[in-house]
Amino acid sequence: MSRPPTLALPACARAYRLDTGRGAFAVHDARPDGAPIGTALLVPGFTGSKEDFIALLAPLAASGFRAVAVDGRGQHESPGPRDEPAYAQEELALDVLAQADAVRDGGGPLHLLGHSLGGLITRAAVLRDPAPFRSLTVLSSGPAAIDASQQTRVRMLIEALGTMDMERVWEAMRALDPPESADEATPPEIGAFLRERWLNTVPEQLIATGRQMLAEPDRVAELARTGLATHVVSGAVDYAWPVPLMDEMARRLAARRTVIEGAEHSPNAERPAKTAEALAGFWSEVG
Predict the structure, then answer these.
(1) Which residue range or ranges hold the AB hydrolase-1 domain (predicted)?
(2) What average pLDDT does range 200-223 have in this prediction?
(3) pTM (whole model) above 0.85
């Protein structure tokens, strides 16, 4: 679970509901002072939300890019039905394409980024239709299913969501947190936000997307055949997809590879300045 370092939107950003052909989605939309040199659509991961990118917004805008971070359907402030088929990967990929269509006139070429689970969803969107995008950045996401060491945790969560309400599951997860993740190590406003976000998330979204992470096939060769410029970014350590696996994926894609030192699974929240620098550099280079 990504922990944003702050909840304060920078002056360059505003929160609103983005209307698309597939419904409205809650977004944070940051814009540079002048005309954007490009637009980036930022898609969060499992248990995540648009707030996971909040620390990237100002530095990306300062680099000349419009950045639009979105809550996917059933995530935090975007509504979603209590129906697992609504969260099939194909449905979520179509949502991304609709979001892309809604922001693509925002200035310059459109760049797509997916964090963790979002990397799998954005890949599915690109494989369905790469035409809207100048590039795809896969942030802390791998070629196929999550690492075996994490699959047990996700299965336990899916089972709990099938038998317990969200409040009880939250309390159970907090009881299992390591000491460094305890409430006393988290600012109170961030802790309150994490709980609120969890309770706002539709459980069927978590169940359906959790199953996707357990069963995702390797689609790297398909992505390579699109010819789309790609960038694989991760921290120096990752528990969901081992870093060597992401190194190999980048090689297979002939992608740019960036490792953010001092970061783990969420470089966007843990080392936002370095992450934003790497993203803006890549987007500027591919035009």
Answers:
(1) 41-278
(2) 98
(3) yes
Beta bridge partners of 155: none
Mean pLDDT of 79-106: 96
3-state secondary structure of 135: strand
Instruction: For the chain, count helices (H), then strands (E).
Output: 11, 8
- Per-residue pLDDT, 179: 53
- For the segment 8-14, the average pLDDT, to the nearest whole number, is 98
Residue 143 Rama label (left phi>0; alpha psi -120 to 50; beta): alpha
Q: Which amino acid is at 93?
A: A
Mean pLDDT of 220-225: 98
Q: DSSP letters along 82-124, please?
A: S-GGGG-HHHHHHHHHHHHHHHGGGSS-EEEEEETHHHHHHHH
Comparing CA positions, the residue from 77, 52, 51, 56 lying closest to residue 66 is 56
pLDDT of residue 94: 98
H helical segments located in 164-264: 166-176, 188-200, 203-215, 220-226, 243-253
Own/partner contacts of 278-282, CB < 8 Å, gap of 24 or more, are 278/231, 278/233, 279/40, 279/56, 279/60, 279/113, 279/137, 279/231, 279/233, 280/59, 280/60, 280/63, 280/64, 280/65, 282/135, 282/137, 282/229, 282/231, 282/256, 282/258
What integer pLDDT is reported at residue 172 of this predicted model?
Answer: 87
Provide the 3-class DSSP secondary structure of residue 164.
coil
Structural domains of the chain sorted by starting position, each given as residue range(s) with its CATH number in brackets: 13-286 (3.40.50.1820)
What's the whole-number mean pLDDT along residues 23-38? 97
